[in-house]
Specification:
Two copies of one chain form a homodimer. Chain A is an alpha+beta fold. Helices cover about 45% and strands about 20% of the residues of chain A. Chain A has a four-stranded antiparallel sheet, covered by helices on one side. In chain A, β1 and β2 form a beta hairpin. Chains A and B meet through α2 and β3 of A and α2 and β3 of B.
Chain lengths: ~100, ~100
Amino acid sequence: MVSPELRQRVAAELPHWAVEGEELAGTWRFDDFAGALAAAVTVGMLAERANHHPDLVIGWGRLMVRLTSHDVGGPTGRDVDLALAIQARIGRPPQ
Amino acid sequence: MVSPELRQRVAAELPHWAVEGEELAGTWRFDDFAGALAAAVTVGMLAERANHHPDLVIGWGRLMVRLTSHDVGGPTGRDVDLALAIQARIGRPPQ
């Protein structure tokens, strides 16, 4: 369940992210596998600090971050906050 | 396309792995997110050395490894070899 307020916040603050089902998802491209893995570790550090953990899908030159709040069954403000922190740390929005 | 020979080798040598579509897949459980991320980095190092890169799906307490040979459109002996190296390094077969 994704509230209209959450959708508005994503559209305004995270225009390169997508609400897919119950998840807030963003994908980045990298030059190789090592770049994607390094970014996954960076995201993992932020997740650990926030005590809020996304699913990460690593492929060759690709990292997908999938955020949700399992207790609510959909993304919340906490996911938006972590998404903002992730793209700030990676240094660019998802593609 | 998965050859009968490959299926036999997986059944004999990798009984805890599954052939799913065009991929050879195994999932491990861990105590927390950090354990899963650390295992993903370990797998990434083996992949880099082999110059053969799986997709990795990291979740809280969970790592899925998905191996295929894109040039052939399915798992090959190269994927079996890497799967064996991965489970040896992690120290236990997938669950």
